[in-house]
Amino acid sequence: MSRRISFVEVGPRDGLQNEKALVSTADKLELIRRSIAAGARRIEVTSFVNPRRVPQMADAEEVCAGLPAAQGVSYIGLVLNPRGAERAIATGALHELGAVCVSTDTFAMANQGQTSEESVAAAKAIIAMAQDAGLKGQATIAATFGCPFEGEVGEDRVVAMAVALAEAGPIEVALADTIGVADPAHVSRLVARVVAAIAPLPVRVHFHNTRGTGLANVWAAVEAGASVVDAALGGLGGCPFAPGAAGNVASEDVIYMLHRAGAATGMDLSKLIEANHWLAGVMGRNLPGMVAQAPAFPKISQE
Ligand code: ZN
Description:
Blueprint: E1 6-9, H1 11-15, H2 25-37, E2 42-48, H3 60-65, E3 74-79, H4 82-90, E4 96-102, H5 105-112, H6 116-132, E5 136-142, H7 155-166, E6 173-177, H8 184-198, E7 203-207, H9 214-223, E8 228-231, H10 251-260, H11 269-283
Parallel strand pairs: 1-8, 2-3, 3-4, 4-5, 5-6, 6-7, 7-8
Helix pairs in contact: 2-11, 4-6, 7-8, 8-9, 10-11
Bound molecules: zinc ion (ZN).
């Protein structure tokens, strides 16, 4: 695979949001610094949500106030509604707003108190707010491959949502397997359909490894034309509103796989592994990511 795949580090937001013990703002900022040192150029740094519902993200403004000035790095704030977008824009520290809409009504209600259709309209409004503020906007379709409440999600519904989002002029549309139920055949089929439906707009993918299919799904997605991949350092993560959701695919595992396959990502695997070991110390436990627990092979890639 002699392609360039863009990478988005989502550890500071999606990796940490479900952790019961609060991680200090200083440690979140250190995670962001280490991600940049490892080559990350797009980082989801926090979300602007109700702190009573997601206590780990209560320091969103403090994180933004402490972000290092870094040439060429785009800081992303996740928002679920216009009020969150206003908070994110007011920090003056972000380059992108990431909106979220949900493929099913039941999960959309649980996640953000909207129907699926309302969540698409809200995401389009957030993209417009970002653009009006001089920022980039993008949107993620949550529960693309399956819903924790309703089960199977129709592929036509996801394609229609992606087309509707594309009308708002985002920099990309992301397909998220929020609860980690996707399989590579499903991913190949649906990513190819969405790529074709919104081209030349890029498709980003976001996988959780709840059932061990995460890396296979990343591979299927990039083979089907996705050009941007989310992952969280160490494979931390979960969703507070999705029963049974487990960790994201681990950044270092994704980068190892892509580099071994000949893809260019701009990431430094050895620095990611160092960052994994640092983060394991902060969390007080080994993290789910596997590459950082294995011997280097054949030598640490510097690509
Ligand atoms: Zn996620």
